[in-house]
Amino acid sequence: MNDLLAAIILGIVEGVTEFLPVSSTGHLILAGALLGYDDARWQMFNIVIQLGAILAVVVLYWRTFWTVMVGLAKRDPGSIRFVRNLLIAFIPAAVIGVLAKKHIEALLLQPKVVAVALIVGGIAILVIERLVKPGTTRGIAAVPARTALGVGFLQCLAMIPGVSRSGATILGALTLGVERRTAAEFSFFLAIPTMLGASVVETAGHLDAMRAGNSVGPLEIGIGFVVSFIVALLVVRWFVGIVGKHGFGPFAWYRIVAGSLALALLTMH
């Protein structure tokens, strides 16, 4: 397949799935397997285009960020707690990501493993939705520091492809007593330092491959970035509305169906 067309398709996949509890990395791996491309050649692309989806959150929630920045300048306690919670939640991924992520990916970065993880994750969501009572903590600044740390450790589960970073953080926050909308927004905001850090590390590690022509070029990466940004702009608001009305059940069933279908197709290959 033409690289530019593949970049557009993967940009759409990233934009749709980054903030849904369905695993964007897992979908990119499965899409790559079904498109038949060389995963190593597209690895940096798959990381960097996630910044496009992250930029969508910055644009959609610019008022929140502006309020927090002004609050920090005025030493507002709520703004300080907002930033504190995001930093605390980011620390586990920063530490464990540096120490263990490469080893985990070497063992588990396989399409069939992703398909199974999608199915298992879907079942886990259904169980959590049924057993966990709605939380009462509203607003990121109101989240206790220990809860933020717990969410940070649960985010590390997403280092297993197919688990879903947003799914692990949102459902983790719910089990720790955070209400749905706050849990979703906490996950959106936490994605910013997490994915920025991952992109910097991946880019530094693959510059030589790009110079040698063993990675897709900057044009494909740029196209994927823009497409993922535009699509994520549309998806984030829709996702918050769906969660508020229907919870996470629809995404759980999607994971189970998509994982089962992918597993069947991969087995036939």
Describe this structure in words.
By secondary structure, the chain is mainly alpha-helical. It has one domain (3-268). The protein is 79% helix and 0% strand. It contains 12 helices and no strands. It has helices at residues 3-17, 24-35, 43-48, 50-60, 62-73, 77-108, 111-131, 145-155, 165-175, 180-211, 218-246, 249-268. Helix 2 packs antiparallel against helix 7 (111-131), helix 6 (77-108) crosses helix 10 (180-211) and helix 8 (145-155) packs antiparallel against helix 9 (165-175). The model has no long low-confidence stretch (mean pLDDT 85).
Question: What is the topological layout?
Answer:
Blueprint: H1 3-17, H2 24-35, H3 43-48, H4 50-60, H5 62-73, H6 77-108, H7 111-131, H8 145-155, H9 165-175, H10 180-211, H11 218-246, H12 249-268
Helix pairs in contact: 1-2, 1-11, 2-7, 4-10, 4-11, 5-6, 6-8, 6-10, 7-12, 8-9, 9-10
